[in-house]
Amino acid sequence: MRLQPGDGGVAILFAPEEAGVLKQLVTQLVMLLQSHSGTPLDPDPLFASLEIGGSDERPTDPALARLFPNAFADEDDAAQFRQVTEQGLINRKLQDAQLVMGDLDDGSGEEGGGLDADPFDDLVDDVDVDSGNPISVNITQDSFLAWARTITALRLAMAARIGLEREEDYDRLIDEDATRGTVLVYDWLAALLEAVLALSAVQSED
Fold it and tell me: Which InterPro entries does its entry note (predicted)?
């Protein structure tokens, strides 16, 4: 992963394996969000983000529960608030993820992607950052927030799925064969988020 000037912004150069992993993760995030959505996504971004509706219960899926936590300690207050705001939050996360997918498609010249049956499972164990021709993905001042929010959502969902909540969890999970690959991708996403936030700071100064 490298940075260079882009068209109206800054481009991130991904190795093909990196771009493939990120595209797979974002596709899985979209699947996860759609599985919890009560309505199709409105094509109008404003209407979609303001849509009222939602469940009155916290999701049982740990990834969704991390993405949509209770807003209040009191269960009744949390349920009432969730019923009004949850669908709009889902829609906004879907909009962000779809923008990132579009940027990745533009960079790779491909459209769409394969859908894994179980989101955030079977992640790659290693990513070769120096192999193949790099894929340039342009991030502008208008898109960096969607990138930052989507990467954060990916990390939250991944951490919830493997039980990564404390520093001692990290030390244990990185040593276990079953979760080491996911932790490495989780760390790589942290580096990507740092790069996106750095790009946003540079562009704000221009």
Answer: AosR (IPR018561)
CB atoms near residue 5 (< 10 Å): 9
* Alpha-carbon span 179 to 68, nearest angstrom: 24
Residue partners of 46: CB distance under 8 A and separation at least 6: none
Residue 51 included in any domain = yes
| Model pLDDT, residue 117 | 44
Helices marked H in 53-176: 62-67, 75-108, 144-162, 167-175
Print the domain residue range for 19.
Answer: 2-110+129-205
- How far is the C-alpha of 98 from the C-alpha of 145, rounded, in Å? 13
Whole-structure pTM value:
0.84
What pLDDT digit, counting tens, does each position of 150-198 carry? 999 999 999 999 999 998 999 999 999 999 999 999 999 999 999 888 7
